[in-house]
Amino acid sequence: MVGQEAALSAIARRLRAAKTGLTPENGPQGVFLLVGPSGTGKTETALALADALFGGEKALITINLSEYQEPHTVSQLKGSPPGYVGYGQGGILTEAVRKRPYSVVLLDEWKRPIAM
């Protein structure tokens, strides 16, 4: 990431801690919020993490959040709530992680918060 040596260092520290067993076994190796203007390397960082941790670009799950800005579209990400059509089927995000639990999830184009 351009000009973000401190952020890259923090990511590396967290991943070293995960690899040495200093973090809970059943949780993610790391959760990182990378924000900034276009062209600063956020997506490239996610690609590099997927490659280094899980062997390649196939381990990167990319969700374009600009498609889910309306409250009624959020169920497409996490699945329908009880009592609604599609309950129990999972959503785009939950199913992608279920199918590939060892992956990097990139929530891209997060312009404004969505009501989850």
From TrEMBL:
Superkingdom, natural source: Bacteria
A GO molecular-function annotation: ATP hydrolysis activity
Domain ATPase AAA-type core as annotated: residue spans: 28-110
Keywords from the named record: ATP-binding, Nucleotide-binding
Official protein name in the record: ClpB protein
GO biological process: cellular response to heat
Phylogenetic placement of the source organism: Bacteria, Pseudomonadati, Pseudomonadota, Gammaproteobacteria, Enterobacterales
Gene Ontology cellular-component terms listed: cytoplasm
